[in-house]
Amino acid sequence: MRFExxxxxxxxxxxxFEHGIVRRAxxxxxxxxxxxxxxxxxxxxxxxxxxxxxxxxEGMVLKPEPLAEALTALGVAPKxxxxxxxxxxxxxxxxKDGADRLAPTTRVILLSAQxxxxxxxxxxxxxxxxxxxxxxxxxxxxxxxxxxxxxxxxLSIGDYVLSGGELAAAVVVDAVVRLxxxxxxxxxxxxxxxxxxxDSEIAPEIGAKVDAGLDADRKPAPRSQHGSGGLLxxxxxxxxxxxxxxxxxxxxxxxxxxxxxxxxxxxQLRKTLLNRPDLLENAELSAEDRRVLDAIQQKRRE
Length: 302
Ligand code: SAM
Description:
The termini are far apart. The chain has helices at 20-27, 64-73, 120-127, 144-150, 165-177, 188-191, 204-214, 257-275, 277-282, 287-301; strands at 2-7, 32-37, 50-51, 61-62, 106-117, 131-135, 153-156, 242-243, 246-247. By secondary structure, the chain is α/β, with parallel strands linked by helices.
């Protein structure tokens, strides 16, 4: 999978991907990140990429011409010219008829505070693609015609305003790369975490691997983890069992994986109710989950 980042600050990315999981994925060739300096697609002495906004107002806007030229150089045609199916075509290669088209496994993304929220569901979708282009805005943003003409998706990483799209692009690369099959040493890690899938959606071989690891006799054992099904993760603890007068919850050391699993589900529900009650609206909840939530709410009212 290849990321192509268009930015006025390519140096921003020189060390950000040199750590941990992303570094390993890049060095093992499971993903690649190329950066493109927007100023290389200008033609004036000052390598101008911005101009004043029409209609007046604060700040500057990234001009459309250098961005359009950069995208053309990367093999991206305006959306209106990307005709027909290109399933057998390499990403960004010219079509037989001469027009550039994008493979269905390519997306052109504009990072923008006005965009659709970036979620784990979207990160999973992007991890299945071959090529993701990320356009980083600066100043007041990017001339809207670039969005209209070229972008498949306008994407926001959260409800706040950054000074540029570079941090947002790095966030997208990080969140997506760790979901590419083979990147995480233990694929189960990506299955059992916040915003994860339902138990029933966890690949049987991964569930079985987790179960097998839990049972010393390698007999089927109750799994101690739940797929979060869109909820937040449960709290994690490690040694020492007592720290600063606080003890690890007893249930986690008694070795009963059924009990541990139930406790973890209750904690997922509790954390989600406290910190992200909005996530409960779309979560698939069992009758037992609802009972737990009612009990937590009842306790809070007392
Ligand atoms: N005028 C814009 C607005 O109010 O929505 C903010 C522009 S911001 C200062 C400059 C650039 O940072 C944007 O063009 C975008 O690329 C990036 N950016 C800012 N906040 C972002 C966010 N929450 N998610 C993704 N990109 C963001």
